[in-house]
Automatic annotation (TrEMBL):
Positions of the RNA polymerase sigma-70 region domain: 11-73
Protein's GO biological process: DNA-templated transcription initiation
Subunit structure, as described in the record: Interacts transiently with the RNA polymerase catalytic core formed by RpoA, RpoB, RpoC and RpoZ (2 alpha, 1 beta, 1 beta' and 1 omega subunit) to form the RNA polymerase holoenzyme that can initiate transcription.
SUPFAM superfamilies (alphabetical): NTF2-like, Sigma2 domain of RNA polymerase sigma factors, Sigma3 and sigma4 domains of RNA polymerase sigma factors
Name recorded for this polypeptide: RNA polymerase subunit sigma-24
PANTHER family in the cross-refs: ECF RNA POLYMERASE SIGMA FACTOR SIGJ, SIGMA 19 FACTOR
Molecular function as annotated in GO: DNA binding; sigma factor activity
Length: 297
């Protein structure tokens, strides 16, 4: 067995963690996969005999590459057409740390958007410390700062994120009930069964990237959101195929027309279990990963 073959199992064992970290930092599955693939090549070319702790080395390399990418991504997001949302990913319940409730809730669209408030280093430090449970010394090494500075990064991040309501998720049965009410509203045009499940200040937004038709402004308030669901989405989606799917750690839905995914929908919740945010993805580039997941089923 050659050196590359010896190195591969070490990397593959760490791959799920690296993908999870990169996705949460970048908000893009495609970019996260590119980062991890580039990291694999870097790992094969490294002087591995001098690396005392491969997991720490890989985490540091991944984190710093993502920080650099996030800095450059800021410009492209400023120029983005319409609302920018993280790329939706298909998740499944498994008996592994990646799919524990704490980690799953940190995949939600609402939480990933909340992270946009943070600087790249704050975002990385917060995720490593709060979500992936690394101690300050290891987080500081990964981010490339002194431990005291690292503590300040995490503290500032916590202050910016506030109480973290974006990570609240109701029980699966409640989520299923919500999806059923949404499906009924879109099919019939009546939102009567949906009203009690929406917060008064609910928001709805859509990401098309300028590559599909979608609203460009965020709809605010239960009246405007219900009107849009009962009128516009009823007109657009009533004859489409409706496929429930776990997306970003919670129940969501895929909309297919003529066998092609044209949209996905995910939700954010308040502490009462009501829907406070509705996220519609229409950008075909960002829907491609969901199509890949369907094709593999």
């Amino acid at each position: 067995m050659n050196c590359a073959e010896n190195a591969a199992p070490v990397f593959e064992q760490r791959r799920p963690f690296l993908l999870g970290l990169a996705y949460r930092i970048l908000g893009s599955r495609a970019e996260a996969e590119d980062v991890v693939q580039e990291l694999f090549i870097k790992w094969l070319e490294a002087d591995r005999a001098s690396i005392a702790t491969p997991a720490a080395w890989l985490t540091t390399a991944c984190t710093r590459h993502c920080i650099d990418l996030l800095r450059s991504a800021h410009t492209s997001r400023v120029d983005y057409i319409g609302t920018w949302l993280p790329e939706p990913i298909h998740t499944t319940h498994q008996d592994s740390p990646e799919h524990m409730h704490e980690l799953a809730s940190s995949l939600s669209t609402a939480f990933l958007l909340l992270l946009e408030r943070l600087t790249p280093k704050e975002r990385a430090a917060y995720l490593l410390y709060e979500i992936f449970d690394m101690d300050y010394a290891h987080v500081a090494d990964a981010v490339g700062v002194q431990e005291a500075a690292c503590r300040k990064l995490v503290s500032r991040a916590k202050t910016s994120l506030g109480a973290g309501h974006a990570r609240f998720q109701p029980e699966p049965a409640r989520q299923d009930q919500l999806l059923s009410a949404f499906r009924s509203a879109i099919a019939s045009g009546s939102t009567a069964s949906l009203t009690a499940m929406l917060s008064e200040d609910v928001e709805l937004c859509a990401d098309s990237g300028g590559k599909a038709s979608a609203i460009r402004e965020t709809l605010l308030g239960i009246t405007r959101v219900e009107d849009f669901i009962g009128q516009s989405l009823h007109a657009y989606w009533q004859t489409c195929e409706w496929l429930p799917m776990e997306i970003n750690g919670a129940q969501g839905v895929i909309i297919k027309a003529d066998g092609v995914i044209t949209a996905s929908m995910t939700f954010g919740f308040d502490e009462a279990g009501r829907v406070s945010r509705i996220f519609i993805m229409r950008n075909p580039d960002k829907l491609a990963g969901l199509q890949d997941s369907l094709d593999m089923q």
